Amino acid sequence: MENIGALLDQLRTGYIGELPERFSSIEQLIIGLKTSDAVADTMALLYRETHSLKGSAGTYGCPIITTICHQLEDLLTTIGGEGFKPDESTIDNLLRYIDLFHQALSIITSDNEDFHAITETLIEIKQSGLAQKQCLLIEPSRPITLMITRALEELHYRVIHLDDGYLALDRLLDEPFDLIITSREIKRVNGRALIAAVKLSNGPNHSTPTMVLTSSNDLQNTRDTDADYIIVKDGRLIDHLTEVVSRLSRRVA
User: Where is the HPt domain (predicted)?
Assistant: First the structure.
């Protein structure tokens, strides 16, 4: 077991040593958008490089790199539509993520593991409007997922969908979201337990608005760790949900 642990440490050390080169590759792609004759191709390559970095960071125990990649991916998806032409402001905004990568690496190599400042910067970037508002939706039903996604997109949210409470908790403890909607009954970690864990954590979503979807009419909020809103899965599901989300948006504004 000690030999396996030593091997894993060696692999992680080697991976961390490669990170500056990988950050540089992403940075050069961003800078290259200024003069690229094939912006769509460059954006596609930039997305693939970011996605690859995200996956490997999770494998080698660098969740903060994964979190930064998640938000960068979402921004690339938001801005990279047909006819996209990057300007200086867009390039500068994308390069902010490169700065965060290097800050994270500095903390990782110092064994400090205090990423609070990076998390706060990610939240600030989202709130500044550089990144689209995001909702994490945890729902096992595909028809309900499609209905909610359409409704939230009309309210200018980008919806990230999962159907597994454990996987959702993993993201929620590291990655900031603007809204959390979960069904009561989901795989591995049920909706109420998921919301309680997030509210009790010191992560970026401990004060994020939460909703639980339920087929029951008798679910009540009786604890501080319960969902902020309960939405019944009935014929007025979408009406009730959009009413609450619209009210939240007005409150933030």
Answer: 4-115
